Amino acid sequence: MENAKLNVIKTLEFDSPNQIPTQLWDLPWAEIHYSKELKNIRKKFPDDIISAPDLLTKTIRTKGNEYKIGEYVDEWGCIFENKQNGFVGEVKNPIIQTWDDIEAFQVPSEFLSLEFEKINNFCKNNSDKFIVSPCCARPFERIQFLRGSENIYMDFYENKNEFETLLKTIHDFNCKRLESWAKTEVDALFIMDDWGAQNSLLISPEMWKEIFKPLYHEYVDIARNNNKYIFMHSDGNILSIFPDLIEIGVDALNSQIFAMEINNLKKFKGQITFWGEIDRQNILPNFNIREIENVVYEIFNELYSNGGIIGQCEFGPGAKPENVYTVFDTWKKILT
User: pTM for this one?
Assistant: First the structure.
């Protein structure tokens, strides 16, 4: 049997993989509530795709624990308030309240101090796995963390120059970080931004194309210029920008396919790899095992094109452990 790495590459290239690659995303909530079941799932269905460790020569500036009750200060100085263990909190008081506060943050340059030899050794020791960088370029979410969502939506129109300056600072740093990771032995780079509400994009598709599409295009170019694949995550209904993400060259997209309805995504099969996911709001918490099996087969029947599907599933709040198990068990049986 082919190793996991080759199987993922065949999936991305639509070159008839021997098996659907799988990957579990587990939140600390799952470890807290279903430690035994989580351990069993991981043992039975080891990930085909793993993340490289973020090994640095310099210490990043954080305080607290992002998944525990209390206050967490991230590497950019953004303050997250968390009221539940096992979850990520929210920024209630952004550090750039007014544009006079622009000096209140510094880009976390520590992230550029990669331990290249140790990272490459990790890749060599896990050469049978497909390895994605932990570096996560997320310009839209980062500018919201720094400035606040309400402020940003006003800044699009009322403070365009200041907004563009801050966004450029974030983007330039993202490029430097991606370029650093592109020099390692990882197989793919990773970017993300949650762009969708329940039924539509958070901003107009025209504005997205004007402001943000060029940024993502640069990230993709960094990957392409260094012979890396590029993976992206975005929650919500992002149907309107699917063609744009395909156009700029995103290889694999983790999105909420059930929020957009699978039938609407069929026209994109063979053009991009669907990197999950199974609906976390309704299907994983509420369906029975037979219904879960049917869901997995529906995804396969509608979106598979000699590849183009990664069986990613998130084990998070509300999910039944037996449903998560069944997702992976079904994926592993489909092509065997």
Answer: 0.95
